[in-house]
Design brief:
binds NADPH dihydro-nicotinamide-adenine-dinucleotide phosphate; binds ligand LH2PNOKW; globular; 13 helices; alpha/beta; 7 strands; Rossmann fold; seven-stranded parallel β-sheet
Amino acid sequence: DTQVQTAWHRWTGVDRQTFQRFFPSSPGSPLPQSQFFPPAKDVMLPTGSFNNRVAFITGGGTGLGRAMTTTLSQLGAQCVIASRKLDVLQQTADEISSQTGNKVHAVQCDVRDPQAVSVCVDQMETLTGLPDVIINNAAGNFVCPSERLSPNGWKSITDIVLNGTAFITLELGKRLIKSQRGASFLAITTIYAESGSGFVVPSASAKAGVEALYKSLAAEWGRYGHRFNIIQPGPIRTKGAFSRLDPTGAFEKAMISRIPTGRLGTPEEIANLAAYMSSDFATWMSGAVIRFDGGEYVSMAGEFNELRRVTPDQWKMMEAMIRNTKGS
Ligand SMILES: CCC/C=C/C=C/C(=O)SCCNC(=O)CCNC(=O)[C@H](O)C(C)(C)COP(=O)(O)OP(=O)(O)OC[C@H]1O[C@@H](n2cnc3c(N)ncnc32)[C@H](O)[C@@H]1OP(=O)(O)O
Ligand SMILES: NC(=O)C1=CN([C@@H]2O[C@H](COP(=O)(O)OP(=O)(O)OC[C@H]3O[C@@H](n4cnc5c(N)ncnc54)[C@H](OP(=O)(O)O)[C@@H]3O)[C@@H](O)[C@H]2O)C=CC1
C-alpha cells in the first residue's frame, strides 16, 4: 500500500494525503476462501503433447502470451512469438528456449498493419512452416472516460484488438486453406466482451467483435479443418494490463472482493487452459467461449448477490419480517 503511494507520489508529485482522499482503498490481497482454490503451477498436459507442432502466439513476449508460450514450449511445440518490440520478444524467446530446450522464434510485427502481418507470416513460413496452433493474444487497452477519448485513442485500441486479430486470422487461414492444413485458432478476449463495460469502451467493442469473428469462422471454416475458440479471462496481474487499467493499485481490492474464489487468476492457469484448448485432447471443441474468472462475472451480474454481506443475525431479522408478511 505504502509502496504504491510512494511510487504514485514519485510519478505525479501528488502527496500521500491527496492520494488517500482520491483512492481510499489499498491494493488487495487474497480473501480467506482462496485457500480452497490454490492455483496449480504445474503443466497439466502430458509431456510431448505438442511435439512436432508449431505454435504462433501474438503478444508472446510479455504477460499471458509469455506464459502460454512457455507452456506450449514445455510441451514440445516450436513457438513463434510476434509483436512490435523485437528486443522484448528476443529476450523472452531466449529465456524460454533455454528453459525448455525447444526453439522459440521472435518475429517483429505490428498487427494493425496487414502488410506487416503478411511479411511476418512469410518469415514464419521460412522459419518453421505454417503453424498448427494460432493464439491471438496481442491487445491494447487503457481506462478512460469515453468523453475524454480521442478518435485516435479509439482507433489505436480497435485496430490492435479487432483488426489485428482479423488480419492475422485471415492471412494464416487463407494460407492454411491453400495448403490443405488444419489448425486450432484461439482468441483471448475478456469477461466484459459479453457485458460491455464503461471506461474501456474501445476494448469492450473490439473484443466483442473478436468473439463474433471467431464464432462465425468456427461455423464457416470447420470444413477446412480449422477450429476457433475463445477464452474470456478475468483479472490476472500483469504489468501490461494493470499499469493501464489500475495505475494506482486502488481498484485491485474491489476486484478481488467481487471474485467468489477470493483471488486473482494466474498466468499459468490461463496457459494450461489455452494449451488444452489448442491440443489434440480438444479436437471436438469449436465455437466455444470459456469464461475463466474465478466466478467474477456471475458474481457481478446477479441482482441479489450483495446479500452475501448480510450477517446471520440480520438474516434472522429479515426472515422474520418476510414470514410476517401477509397477503400481496
Ligand atoms: C481486469 C479484467 C479485465 C481486463 C482486461 C484486460 C484487457 C487488456 O487488453 S489488457 C492489455 C493491456 N496491454 C496493453 O495495452 C499493451 C499495449 N498498449 C500500448 O502499446 C499502448 O497503451 C496503446 C494501446 C495506447 C498503444 O500504443 P501506441 O504507441 O500505438 O499509441 P499512442 O500513440 O501512445 O496513443 C494512441 C492514441 O491513444 C491515446 N491514448 C493513449 N493512452 C491514453 C490514455 N491513458 N487515456 C486517453 N487516451 C490515451 C493517445 O493520446 C493517442 O491519441 P491522440 O493523442 O488523439 O493521437
Ligand atoms: N491481464 C488481465 O487481467 C487480462 C488480460 N486479458 C487479455 O489477455 C491478453 C494479454 O494481456 P496481458 O498479458 O495482460 O497484457 P500485455 O500488455 O502483457 O500483453 C499485450 C501484448 O500485446 C502486444 N501488442 C500490443 N500492441 C500490439 C501491436 N500493435 N502489434 C503486435 N502486438 C501488440 C504487446 O507487445 P508489444 O508492446 O511488443 O507490441 C504485448 O506483448 C490480451 O488480449 C488482454 O486483452 C483479458 C482479460 C484480463
